[in-house]
Amino acid sequence: IEATFEQEKSSADFTAKAQNLLDMYKCFENLSIATKAQEKIEKLGLAKYDEVDYEKANTIAREFGTIESFDNINGAYFLGKSEEMVVLYNTVIEKAFKTLSNEAREAFMLTKKAADEIKSEVAAKEEYKAAKDLMLDADASASRMEWESAYNGYQKADAAMQLVYEAVAKKRAAAEKAIADAKARVEAAAAYALEADEIAPITEEGEAE
Question: What is the DSSP annotation of 8-73?
Fold first, then answer.
């Protein structure tokens, strides 16, 4: 009976140790994911969009930094902490890109409004439609709450619509200048004719006096 008990105890200890190692392995994977997320937040300056969750995540990161040895530590506890840290960092990123995507869409709509005011949809039909389609794709990403994708899409749409606006505005300005130049030439010719008539008016016989 004692031998059986010892075997069961040994087996239970082995199972517990194996589970602990598995938990720590998953923990290390999460630490890698969290580190990349934290670096992304710092690089893009996203922390300001959710300072509370960012500080919570950093607090957990500091707790991991105090570990001197991973021998005989509670794998389940730190696995849970690592999962929480990943969620917090990702929450910061999601909130940031949601705000940024909304701002990017507003920027696109302003550019579109300017383009509409100079009839860009008619003057550059294909390019206008392409820019608008980019915006609709970004809207689809936003509806799926894929905020980073939506943000990138709105930025591309805004840049495309800006090019449409600039191209149409340039053509419009050139056309207006051509009209103004032609008008100026007509007015100059009329003024010259009037001046000539005053200097040498045409008689009824069609001869200048």
Answer: HHHHHHHHHHHHHHHHHHHHHHHHHHHHHHHHHHHHHT-GGG-HHHHHHHHHHHHHHHT-S--TT-
Nearest-10 Cα torsion for 40, 41, 43, 45: 150
The string of pLDDT tens digits covering residues 36-71 is: 999 999 999 999 999 999 999 999 999 988 877 766
Q: Are 168 and 123 in contact (CB under 8 A)?
A: yes
pTM reported for the whole predicted model: 0.76
pLDDT in tens, 171-192: 887 777 777 767 877 777 766 6
Is the distance from CB of 21 to CB of 72 less than 8 angstroms?
no
Token pair for 194 = 């009037």
- Number of C-beta neighbours around residue 130 at 10 A: 15
Per DSSP, the three-state class of 98 is helix
Angle, CA 42 vertex, CA 40 and CA 45 arms, to 5°:
100
The SS3 of residue 202 is: strand
- The count of other CB atoms within 10 Å of the CB of residue 206 is 6
The pLDDT tens digits for 113-136 are 999 999 999 999 999 999 999 999
Report helix, strand or coil for 208.
strand
